[in-house]
């Protein structure tokens, strides 16, 4: 995975929510055209566009409610499994500024793709608008907790079960915060 240029040659440009972005071709990483394989170098599931759109609406409503609190300072969001970064970039475009967004992914290639996607959308977002992290989400949550850098919103969208991330996420979110959890495969919840 060290030869990022080899991977970048495989990227295609998609569009979602008015954002153009690079991703790997999901059709090449699917047996049926629907179920994606874990072998996709950086995960992107186009079928979940509607889910991401609903998330934007929910987070914007949460932002509006939070702003009515006299102690509210700034909306802080941790996109803990950012993959291509499409959710983070769409959030930055859609939400009222100022907003702090952390995009995290354990996969170092994902961070390179997110950087390319930020560059592709430089009229909307800059490198300083989204802070990138390359951590296991559980360790990131623990670190946020230990530094008392509590987030307004933590978004959890794993390939597999979200169960293993919930306990540490609870420690890293504000007392009146929100944890968004996506599990597209309900079998992994049991």
Q: Uncertain segments of ≥5 residues (pLDDT<50)?
A: none
If you average the pLDDT, what whole number results?
91
Strand content: 15-25%
Round the Cα radius of gyration to an integer and report it: 16 Å
Instruction: Spell out the CATH superfamily.
Output: Vaccinia Virus protein VP39
Span between N and C termini?
33 Å
Give a quick precis of the structure.
The chain is an alpha/beta fold and 190 residues long. It contains six helices and seven strands.
Give the topology.
Blueprint: H1 4-8, E1 11-16, E2 19-24, H2 49-67, E3 75-79, H3 86-94, E4 99-104, H4 108-120, E5 130-133, H5 137-146, E6 151-156, H6 163-172, E7 173-181
Parallel strand pairs: 3-4, 3-6, 4-5, 6-7
Antiparallel strand pairs: 1-2
Helix pairs in contact: 2-3, 5-6
């Amino acid at each position: 995975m060290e030869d990022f240029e080899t991977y970048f040659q495989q990227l295609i440009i998609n569009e979602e929510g008015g954002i153009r972005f690079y991703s790997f071709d999901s059709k090449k990483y699917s047996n049926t055209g629907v179920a994606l394989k874990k072998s996709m170098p950086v995960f992107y599931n186009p079928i979940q566009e509607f889910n991401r759109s609903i998330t934007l609406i929910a987070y914007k409503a949460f932002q509006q409610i939070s702003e009515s609190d006299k102690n509210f300072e700034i909306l802080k969001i941790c996109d803990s499994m950012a993959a291509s970064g499409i959710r983070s970039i769409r959030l930055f475009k859609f939400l009222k500024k100022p907003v702090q967004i952390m995009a995290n992914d354990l996969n170092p290639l994902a961070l390179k793709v997110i950087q390319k996607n930020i560059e592709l959308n430089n009229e909307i977002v800059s490198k300083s608008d989204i802070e990138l992290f390359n951590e296991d989400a559980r360790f990131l949550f623990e670190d946020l907790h230990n530094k008392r850098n509590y987030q307004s919103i933590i978004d959890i969208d794993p390939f597999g079960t979200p169960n293993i991330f919930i306990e540490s996420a609870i420690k890293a979110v504000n007392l009146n915060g929100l944890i968004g959890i996506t599990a597209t495969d309900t079998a992994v919840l049991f």
